[in-house]
Every structure is written in C-alpha cells, then in structure tokens.
Design goal:
Distance between the termini of chain A: 17 Å
Order of helices and strands of chain A: HHHHHHHHHHHHHH
Strand content of chain B: 5-15%
CATH superfamily of the largest domain in chain A: MetI-like
Strand content of chain A: under 5%
CATH architecture of the largest domain in chain B: 3-Layer(aba) Sandwich
Structural class of chain A: mainly alpha
Number of strands of chain B: 13
Helix content of chain B: 40-55%
CATH topology of the largest domain in chain A: MetI-like fold
Number of domains of chain A: 2
Helix content of chain A: over 70%
Low-confidence stretches of chain A: 1-15
Number of helices of chain A: 14
Number of strands of chain A: 0
Strand order of the largest sheet of chain B: 2-1-3-12-6
Oligomer: heterodimer
CATH class of the largest domain in chain B: Alpha Beta
CATH architecture of the largest domain in chain A: Orthogonal Bundle
Mean pLDDT of chain A: 84
CATH class of the largest domain in chain A: Mainly Alpha
C-alpha cells in the first residue's frame, strides 16, 4: 500500500512539471487506471459489498429459509429484535465476554512476550508453545476443553478436589459459564497477541534503553515504564482492537460446548444469529442480528483505522 | 494395465445406463442409531426389487440439521428422493410445498392393510387433511425404574407408580437413601418440547385451541403439568442435569426413576448391564379415555416430484414401513415400529424376551401427533417454552409455577400468527 502511494506521488510531481502538452496522455492514463482497478473493484463488490448489501436488504423482509415468496416488512424485524429478551441478553453477554477477554488476553500476551524476550535460551520453543492454541482448530480444542471441564471426571475438578476445593459445574452453572468460555477465549487469543508484542519489542531501538540507563533508569520497572510501554503504544492499540474484533466473533466454543445455555446464560450475538437463521429459519430476523453485529465491528474497525494513522507520530 | 482399466471403465459407462435400475436416493438422521437399520432393510429390499436401486447419502447429524439441509436443497434442487425427518418437522415441509402427498398411492394399494398399515399411522403424518409422511421409528415417553433402589426405599416393584402423586412419594423415599442418590430425573429438554407436551396431552390437554389462534396449555391440564414439574424440583429434589448426565447417573445406579424416551432403551440397557435390575413402566398420569402421548421418532417423506421416480419411491416407502422393514427397526434400535403386522407377527417372541421393549407397545393406542406450532415463528416458540421450563428446573422460579405459566402463555401468544 505504502509503495503504491509513493509511486503515485512521484508521477504527480513529474506531471506537474510539464502539464499542458500532455493532457491527452493524462486522460489516457486515468482511463487505464480505471480499467486496471476494475477487477479489484468487481471482486470487492462481489465478495464484500454485495453480500453485506444483501444481508441489509434481507433484514427488511420476512424471508424464511426455503420460503417460496418474500415480502418487505420495513423495520418489523428490528422492532421484534429489540423487544426480544434473548437479543438483549445475547448483546449483554457478548459485551461482557469482550470486556473480560480483551484486557486479559492483551495483558497476558504482553507479559509472556516480555518474559520470552528477557529470557536467555529456548526462545523459539516458548514462542511455538504459546502459539499452538492460535493455530489449533477451535472446534477440536473445544472438545478437549469439554473433557477437562466435565463436572464429574474432568481434569480441572479432579485438581480442585486434590487441593481441597469444591468441584464446580463449569458449563452448566449460569454464573460460571460465561467466565469459563472467556477463559478459553483468552487461552486461544493471547498467543496471537504475544507474537505481535514480540515483533513490537524487537523493533524498539536498543540505544533508547542505553539512554534511559544513562539518565538513571536502573530498575526493570522504570525501563518498562519509560521506554518499552510508550514505544509499544501503537502495537498495543492495534492488539486491543484486533482482540476486540476477534472476541466479538466468539461462536465456535459456544456452539460446541453450551449451545448458548444454560437458559441463555452464554448466548452471544453470533450464536443468536445462527439459531435465528438456521434453527428457527427466521432469516429476516437473523439478518437483523447480523446488521447489529456488523455495526459493532465496523465501529471498531473505523476506530482502528483512525488511531493507526496516528502511529506515524512514533516512527 | 491402465488400458484395461480405462477400457472397463468405458464399458461400464456405456453399459451402465442400459442396465440401470431406477435410482432412489435416501437420506436419514442419526447415523450412529440408524445406519445398520437402513442397511439391513436395503439388503432385504434389493433381493425383492432389483429394478430399484436405493442409495444413501451421509446421514444427518440431528433432526435439526436434517430439516435445514432439505430446506437448503429445495432451493438448489438437490433434494434426496426420500428423506427421514423428525416427527414434528412434517409441518414445515408441507407449508413450504416440498413434501409430496401419499394419498393416491395409499388408496390405490389394496393389499396395504394386510401389510400392517393402519389409520393411526396415517394420522401422524397428516397435515391439512392429506397424508405427507409415514412413521418409521416411533418412540414414546416412558419411565425407567432402578428396582434395587425402589426395593431399598420400601417400594413395591410389582406395583410401580401409576400417577404423579405416587411418583413423587416414591422419589422422596429414594432420595432419602443418601446424599448422592437422586430420587427422580425428567428429561424435560428433549427437542421440540416433547416432555412438556407429554404431561399436558396425558391429561387430555392441547398446546393450542382448535383453530390454532390461541394458547391452550394455560388451562387446567397445563397448570397441572407445570406444577408437577415444579414439584419434582421442590419436593423430589430433582437435580439440574443435562440429558447425557442424567443418563450416566441413572446407568451408574444413582437415580431411582428416570423419565425419557424409549429410544434410549438400547443404550441404557447396555450401560446398566448387570449393575441393577432395570424395569420400564408406563408414563404416569395418563387420564382415562382422553389421555394421549406424543409420538417421537422419525417419519419417511417423499420429496421427488417426478412421477416415475415417485412410483419407485413409493415402493421403497412401502417396504421400509412394511412388516419386514419395521421388524428390523425394532431389533436394531430401541425404537418401536408402528406397523401392526410387525408387532403382532414378526416381533411376538422378541417382546416376550424383551419385556422392557414392550412398555411402549402397550402405549400405542394412545399415540398422538408430536405437535408443531404453526407459522413462521413455530420453532422459535419451542425455544421460548424451553427457556421458561428451564427457569423451573434450575430452581430459580420453581416456587412460582403459576406465574411461569402465565409468562410462558403471553410470550407464546405474541409469536403465534396474527390472523
């Protein structure tokens, strides 16, 4: 992207030097540019804008999966949605999930990255080990978690019994189920954040630490607070937003482990969308949920785009 | 080598269509339960009708998935010729115009009664006055008793509870045997509100009124049913477990009475093995004359609209649901075939040897349809009811079943089609 912009800037400068005699050529160039960008635009419409527009349109209809006819119903789907208890519960759960997973996975990812970076040997080993959860299929991992969390013979409850604590029904207790799913979410996400932080750490110039040492920053904490943390600012911002977007998309664990239960205690937006569309066959209603979901993710993306632009400031 | 391979492939391609029998594509749910059953029936059928070739698609994982798949395939025109679907899913296929009516075939086939087909079978797949489906494997709600625990608690194994009052009394006594013993468990969350419909229908009630415009489960029958469920929690101390955990606890000998589908019988019997004496018994609280029980299980539906294929598909359906096919269903699954001839002739000895399998057959006369709610919100309603029942089972609202029923009624009423 940056390269392209630079080239483009270059040609403009050249063009400005001898403008008038080359008007025809310029028009031709512009025409070529439009033609060349056509395949990209076409694909963008086909794969991104088209489907989103379709979902938006479906959300204003009473379409049902497999139904022979469709009718416009205006805002009816949204009215039904906003008066449905399940939707508000689902939205609340999703926000709570994001509120737990984002700070924890960012903090954990940063801590592990710092530990690995400050250690001597086995760096690549640790990097690989902590990155495994990111690579693994979440569905398969969810099944392993299901066994570990089993109320009667699960590993976690056996360990709790060993140290004299009461076993818990992690996935059927309405108060525990969301934090449990969040813990799995953190486990899955922090390795990814760790890798991003590691990249950020490597790019901090060593001489900054030397300068800080000269100025009297002796303790590890002051080195972190004065150099590392501010220099990681842009990376941290990026990590926070990416984590937020990814935790908004939580679905696999819910689908495999709880199906939104018990009594909707772990119902999240994407799962509501799935059950409305593919279990209750209310496609219009599902599309309305999708639109709400898109609005959230789009907001996050806009924030990201705005803030990432500012990172130039640090470079 | 390669040449001969190619040659034989070419010959197969040319010769194939000439020899080809009419192919009927069949898809069914729950491979782990039914693959063996369908395979055996197909083998028996192949001997009788070599001119019709039955091929199977990979089984659906569940009733829910099966319905989704057919609805999607209806758009892309890739449906199988015959599909087996959950009993309460007939309605959606009829509403969408996907299922093909069978009446003309049933009328034209004179010998069909002698093959064990009967009116109650047709009633189950009837919608808007036409038969669209035939029941293949039927399950009914029944009670499973751990006789060892019943005896220990002072109950009489020869006089097991006939009504809910007696069930709760016995469950309390069993519960008193120890802190890790459960008196009773009730698989209330079986898909499609099955075990909510059961106690309401057993009292003679119904889900909606006759023209399906108003909720009817808020009447005395529904009040009795929801209060009973609450009493299981408050008085009999029913634990809040999911279905697999309930089954595991019962099979481990930790539960005295377990209410669930007959379809669990094969699994439970194997899991119990010789740990304790298992006995199945009639579902309690069935009112005389007007009491009914909803049939679970799955039905066969013809989807192909091509008249030639339909004829072949009907031959397949007739065999699958006929006496021979039905007998295979009973022997390979815990399900019961609705076919009269199969039960009375082919399976006579089987039921004498397996009295636990016979409990459901005794309940056959009070069989009724597994009710599906009307309109576009039909399946959403099922979910709403499930959530309300859950609030009782978790204990949160076990103290106020009347209020739960009022809320449940108004929530369901809002989702019914506005006429």
């Amino acid at each position: 992207m940056a390269d392209l912009a630079l080239q483009h800037g270059g040609t403009t400068v050249v063009r400005r030097a001898h403008r008038r005699p080359h008007d025809a050529r310029r028009a031709r160039e512009q025409w070529t540019a439009v033609v060349l960008s056509f395949p990209a635009l076409f694909l963008m419409f086909l794969l991104l804008i088209g489907p989103v527009a379709t979902v938006l349109i479906i959300s204003f209809t009473d379409y049902q999966l497999g139904a022979p006819s469709v009718g416009l119903v205006g805002l009816q789907n949204y009215q039904d949605l906003f008066s449905d208890r399940v939707f508000w519960k689902s939205l609340g759960n999703t926000l709570r999930y994001v509120a737990i997973v984002v700070p924890a996975s960012v903090a954990f990812g940063l801590a592990v990255a710092l530990l690995i970076e400050s250690g001597e040997g086995l760096k690549s080993f640790y990097r690989a080990v902590f990155f495994v959860p990111v690579m693994a299929t979440l569905i398969a991992m969810a099944i392993s978690w299901e066994y570990m969390l089993h109320p009667q013979f699960g590993l976690i409850n056996l360990l709790l019994k060993q140290i004299g604590l009461a076993p818990q029904s992690w996935l059927t207790d309405p108060h525990l189920v969301l934090p449990t799913l969040a813990a799995i979410g953190i486990w899955q996400l922090f390795g990814f954040n760790m890798v991003l932080f590691l990249a950020g750490l490597v790019s901090i110039p060593r001489h900054l630490y030397d300068a800080a040492a000269l100025d009297g920053a002796q303790s590890a904490w002051s080195r972190f607070w004065l150099v590392t943390w501010p220099m990681l600012g842009p990376v941290t911002m990026f990590v926070v937003l990416i984590s937020a977007v990814r935790s908004f998309q939580v679905f696999d664990t819910v689908h495999v482990l709880t199906k939104g239960g018990p009594n909707k205690a772990s119902e999240v937006l994407l799962y509501t969308m799935y059950s409305e569309g593919f279990e209750f066959f209310r496609s219009g209603q599902a599309a309305a949920v999708a639109v709400v979901f898109l609005a959230f993710v789009l907001t996050l993306t806009v924030i990201k785009a705005r803030l990432i632009e500012k990172r130039v400031h640090y470079l | 080598m390669l040449k001969t391979c190619l040659l034989s492939a070419a010959i197969a391609l040319i010769a194939g269509p000439a020899l080809a029998a009419t192919e009927i594509v069949v898809q069914f749910p729950y491979g782990e339960l039914f693959t063996e059953t369908h395979k055996q029936i197909a083998a028996a059928f192949a001997k009788k009708r070599p001119d019709i070739k039955v091929t199977f698609r990979a089984p659906y994982d569940s009733y829910e998935e099966g319905t989704q798949k057919v609805l999607r395939e209806a758009i892309t025109k890739q449906m199988p010729d015959i599909t087996f679907q959950g009993l309460n899913r007939v309605r959606i296929f009829v509403d969408r115009g996907i299922a093909q009516p069978l009446d003309s075939y049933i009328k034209a086939d004179k010998g069909i009664e002698a093959e064990g087909f009967h009116q109650a079978m047709y009633d189950i797949g009837m919608q808007n006055g036409k038969v669209y489906a035939l029941p293949f494997a039927i399950s009914l709600p029944i009670a499973y008793y751990n006789l060892d625990l019943v005896k220990k608690a002072g109950g009489d194994p020869n006089k097991l509870p006939a009504n809910w009052e007696e069930v709760i009394e016995l469950a309390k006594k069993i519960k008193a045997l120890g802190p890790d013993v459960n008196g009773v468990t009730y698989a209330w969350d079986i898909t499609g509100n099955w075990l909510w419909q059961a106690p309401v229908f057993a009292q003679g009630g119904s889900m909606l009124n006759a023209d399906e415009s108003k909720v009817a489960f808020d009447g005395p029958e529904g009040q009795y049913a929801i209060k009973t469920l609450a009493r299981l929690v408050t008085e009999a101390k029913m634990p809040n477990l999911n279905q697999p955990d309930m089954r595991a606890a019962f099979a481990a000998g930790k539960t005295g009475i377990h209410f669930t589908s007959t379809s669990d019988l094969a699994k439970v019997t194997t899991m119990v093995d010789k740990k304790f004496e298992l006995k199945t018994h009639l579902f309690p609280g069935v009112a005389p004359v007007k009491g009914r029980l909803p049939a679970g299980g799955n039905v066969g539906i013809i989807l192909t609209a091509d008249p030639k294929k339909q004829e072949a598909a009907w031959e397949v359906m007739k065999f699958w649901h006929g006496a021979e096919g039905a007998a295979i269903v009973a022997k390979t699954t815990g399900y019961m075939p609705p076919n009269k001839k199969a039960n009375e002739v082919y399976l006579k000895d089987f039921y004498i040897e397996n009295p636990n399998n016979y409990t459901a057959v005794k309940q056959l006369p009070i069989l009724t349809k597994w009710y599906a709610f009307p309109g576009e919100n039909g399946l959403k309603i099922t979910d709403v009811i499930k959530d309300h029942l859950n609030s009782i089972v978790t204990g949160t609202r076990a103290g106020e079943p009347d209020k739960v029923l009022v809320d449940m009624t108004s929530d369901v009423q809002k989702l019914l089609p506005r006429k």
